[in-house]
Structures are given as structure tokens and as C-alpha cells.
Amino acid sequence: MSTNNQNIVLANLTFHGKKHTLSLPQDATISDLSESIANELSVPASNQKLMISKVGLLKPPFKDPDLALSSIANKKISLMGSTAREASAVTTAQEEASRRVNPSGGRTVQQKASAYKTHDWKKEQEESQYTFTTLQPLPYLPNPRRSLDFLQRLKDDAGIKASMRKHKFTVPILTEMNPVEHTQSNHEGTSRTLGLNRNQGEVIELRLRTDAYDGYRDYKTIRKTLCHELAHNVHGPHDRNFWDLCKVIEKEVEAADWKSGGRSVGTEEFYEGGHGEDVDDHGGWTGGEFVLGSSPVGGVTSTGDRAQQGMNRREILAKAAEERMKRMREQQQGRENAGSGS
């Protein structure tokens, strides 16, 4: 502080690195200095902090508001604080920040930085290539929509997809079989065909339904049958090579089955794939056109009706459906005749 004359006190202070001189009356107090700072430097009293050498830090409201300004003459004064404009900018920033406040915790919600995940185009391309091209329920059996959903579940199964990608299996048609056509009874008991692989993977048929058509078999058992039939894409007879591949596929499917779960099965239709197990699936395939309704010869399906050779898959499926319905009518007629005593 320095006095210019008996009526004026000059207050020299530093603010934002610049020196400022304020003229006040000789009897001015620290409170008058604060008011002068607010008017001339636009720093509101609430933002003012005065660091005075050998006195310390003073800020409004002052402990001694009547402290004579002349008593701190010739002392270094540093003004700290924000101007009204700066304070307004801070308030605006705070209001913007408050829009991101977490109501439950009262803290700013921090967006979690998620790791950038690259799109696995190769995997998607392979899954679209190595899969079941067409799902075909039997439309003449009850509730074909449910059968279609079951086939779709098999197609979308993570384990099946992973194994088909690894072995590059593409199966044009995955369909269900009619239980009545693949169940045989004699004095030794009842045998049931669980699955069929036609023409080295051209068509795979699976036994989805119970014998009485009133329900569906256990999903994991059917999936295991599908593993068995996929192994027939490579090996026809049930030899050592076949069983080795079958076990590999089963382990791959189980390993990739992140959902796990499923029901346990304790029926005569359940089988465990393995060397020496007698799985009644007609075993194998034959080259050339896909043939339906042919009988197994020596563990390998024969070429059957020559009239079917050269037919496309849609025509073959339509013909097979006709044959199934014909056999069902014949069986029904036979039961009626037997009931009438003929």
C-alpha cells in the first residue's frame, strides 16, 4: 500500500499475473477494498481471496471487516478468485455435468469403455456354409411345426455348429423319420432305428418322436444320434475308423455346449456311441443318387429302385412321402381286417 496524499490510499495488487492499482479514500477498510475489487475487476466478494504478506489469507466475510486499509500499506497483495464471467462458465459446465449424475449414487455415470470386438466374418461365413441347408419335418405327422422347431434347435446348437465347421460338413437336408416305419418287433423284442445317413450326408433322418406320436424324445439323446450320423459322412461301416470319428464329434459337441444342462435318459432307445455298440441305423451310405425306402445290403444301402435315379431331392422327398402314406394306409387296412376277423 502506498498513500498518494492524505485523502487517497492506493492499493496495489496482483491478479491473474497482472498488477492493478485501486484508489480508495484514506479511511477505507478491507471491506471497502473488497467492494472496489468487485466493481472494477468483476470478481464477486464470494470468489475473492486476498493473500497479504506477513498477514496471511483474508476472504469475505472478513473476520475484522473494519480493518483499516492503511494498516496494510506497503504489503504485497495477491488476489485469487474467478471473475463473474469465469464463474458463469464454471456454473454452465456444472449444469451440463449434472445431467450425467447418477440419481442413485449422486456421482457422474462413467461410461464403461468396452473392448472393441472385431466381427468374425470368417466364422459367420463358415457357419452359413457348413450347416444343414434345409430342415424338413414330415407334414403328414401331427404338429409338424414342433418338429421343425426341434430340427432348428439342432441346427443352431453351438456344439453341432462348431463340429460341422471343423470337419467342413454340409448336409443338404435334415429331416425326421416316421417311427412306425423304423420300428420292428419280433419274439426277441423291439428294435428302433435312431437315425439314417443317406448317400454320404445328402440327407440325415432322425427319430424325433416317441412310438405313439404323443411326444418327443430327449434332446441330448437325439443330438448324440446326430453326431453318430455325421460320422457316417466320412465312414460308412461301423468300423474302428467310424467309432474313433464318432467319439471325436461327440466330445467336440459336448465341449462347445456352453449351456450344458439337459435331461438324463434311461430308456432302451438311449445309446452311448463307442466301439462295439450295436446302434441300429442301417449304417452307411452309397454313391450316386439319394434313394429312399431301399433295404440295407451288407450294412450299405443298395441303389434300390432305378426309376429314382436322376431325380432331384424335392422329387425324391415327395415320392418318399407318397410311399409312407401308402404304407400307413396299408397298415391301417390290415389292422381293420384283422379286427373284423378276416
UniProtKB/TrEMBL annotation:
Bias-annotated ranges (Low complexity): 294-304
Top-level lineage group: Eukaryota
Biased composition (Basic and acidic residues): 322-333
GO molecular function, one term: proteasome binding
UniProt xrefs under Pfam families: WLM
InterPro entries xref list: Ubiquitin-like_domsf (IPR029071), WLM_dom (IPR013536)
WLM domain ranges (all copies): 123-326
Region (Disordered): 294-313, 322-342
Entry protein name: WLM domain-containing protein
Organism: Amylocarpus encephaloides
